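Sample 1 of the test manifest.
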Amino acid sequence: MLCRVRARAFPAPAACKRGGAPGIVILVNEVFHRLEQDLTRIFADYLSARYGWSAPVSFEQPRQPEFGELALPVAFQLARQLRRPPRAIAEEIVREIGAVPGVSALEVAGSGYINLRFDRARYARQLVEGPPPETFPPSDEKIIVEHTNINPNKAAHIGHLRNAVLGDTFVRILRARGRNVEVQNYIDNTGVQVADVVVGFQRLLGKTPEEVAAMAADPSCRFDYFCWDLYARVSAHYAEHPQALAWRQQALEEIERGHGDTARMAAIVSDAVMHAHLATMWRIGVTYDVLPRESEILRLQFWATAFELLRERGAIYYETQGKNAGCWVMPAAAFAGEQEGEDSKVIVRSNGTVTYVGKDIAYQLWKFGLLGKDFYYRPLMVYPDGHRVWVTADTPGDEPAPQFGHGKRVYNVIDSRQSYLQDIVAAGLRALGFEKEAENSIHFAYEMVALSPRCAAELGFDLTAEERRRAFVEVSGRKGLGVKADDLIDKLIEKALEEVASRHPEDPPEKQRAVATQIAVGALRYFMLKYTRNAIIAFDFQEALSFEGETGPYVQYAVVRARSIFRKLEERGEQRPDYAAELDAAALERQLRHEPFWQLLLMASKVDAVLERAILMGEPAHVAKYAFQLAQAFNNFYHEYPILSEPDRERRIFLLWLADYVRSQLERTLGVLGISCPEYM
RNA sequence: GCGCCCGUAGCUCAGCCGGAUAGAGCGGCUGGCUUCGAACCAGCAGGCCGGGGGUUCGAGUCCCUCCGGGCGCGCCA
């Protein structure tokens, strides 16, 4: 009974790992974030000295903007300790604390809130001057983010897009806040999925490796699409002829041995499909630093090393009894805690081969630099922007490679269906005594992208009556049921092109297409980010292809409109004013008395606070929501206050500055989301 | 059977790890382009936050329980 209670009180830290990185100290110069930090310290010191209050002080955002910029509910907490009404305590604090730098007023509200009003002119003056550049500490604390991880045996689909966009955006958020990040994309080029496609080429199509290589090199053949269909054919063939599964087994063994025609064909297929995936992801701005491949994990005997560690430290043992007799297993207690009825997990099969989890433990050890050995590397390709991606190799390369791995913190972007296996991987680290690394192995879990029944029907799939009733239908690579990533991107570009062409018919087609592509990428990335990670996306073309309302193009449009103000300004032969010289504290004070201006400015100044919160919560959707809300606020402002026709000189300069500032903050936020802004829309 | 996730407006989803009067988009209805771009803006309608207990000064948020839905629990990956 006691055990049961303990297990509840200390649940296994699983999918939703929260909390910041205690070891990383960021020097924040961003105005809002810094002021909030300063105020937290001032109040914590005061409450500690005055009341002996030691719990953390945390501010909230008041429900109504008229209540001020920050609210402090601490009087409610103090009420119990002091046995006095919260309102009286709040009044006492406000009376006694005196002047607080950066704050123009403290007010007691409701039954005991303390509301803070910022000194608007002082706050804005810091923004006009431009806050000093942030100085992040040299980050030797590397964060590894592993994402995409598509089996290289068929074209990428929309589920893979969600993974890549989530992972890539989280990387951008981390980098925007000064973290040192390495992006890994694991390539399982020796697994059953590749073996199945090889079986298809060999047994169903009678192809030689040379013929497959020719197909892969033929630009008129969409090789990844061809494999998509072939994989579905092979799966169907297995279903009809179960004895054909022997082909898979044989292929798998030959691929693992690494020589012969089958292994050669597997390398041709997986390399070609991997390049197709890299090209697809590049279309939406997703890149990688290094591609660790399973073939090198095998050739370089990573598993043998990991196995010795696990065996020596007693993390696994040789089972002699029961159904797992002859296997090396991890005891259930290692990963299931006190739960009853869990089976131990097989790590090495009775035939001596290692399971997926075993290989993943070895890979995870390498990421932390705990394995004691490393890959060799060679440069694979250079992206059009000059960034280089490396791939693992089993022999030394000609060029010296950067040091990969040795992360202090590792995010594995993997869908939530694999949380059980991710728990076992972390348990493996813990069982080896790497408690801290287990703690820093974060399963960045997200729910799947499924298809709405309508969407599946549009794709020409026959659904059962039961499937039609459901809210969504699961994508299935084996059945070939899904929306291919490139098809969706193409559709988005075509639709955007129609819109662009109708609005700017005079523009050259290639220019129109470039703009349409930016809009399409914005729509796609925003669509994948607007949902929080644990929402299942029931994919629907109508929603995904929308450019209105809460979408990427809506945010892009706000930036385009803002820019057009300054383009018009130039066309009239005017210069952008020298804001810092023109807008002194008194002028800012006068203009910011107007509430809508202050609210917009305040909101736009919170980008860094939003990014930090997204890191803390592990939730890129927060940044997407913020971008939309800021764009919405700007569109409202844009509509309400014509700037260029503003007669009052001071107000006109102020409005120009405000529009310019909001635009720059919006562009920066969009950049973090991997979305660029077209010249026009 | 066990574990995890979800249930908030007609639909799709937010709600900052307990705070003040419940938020947005889409869809519906009504208005707004001779203005810095209407991929926009304004307004209206639409909610016992699945049900019930509990903890708390305070619960959509935490705990328990029930109902409904999803995903896992292989010597597959």
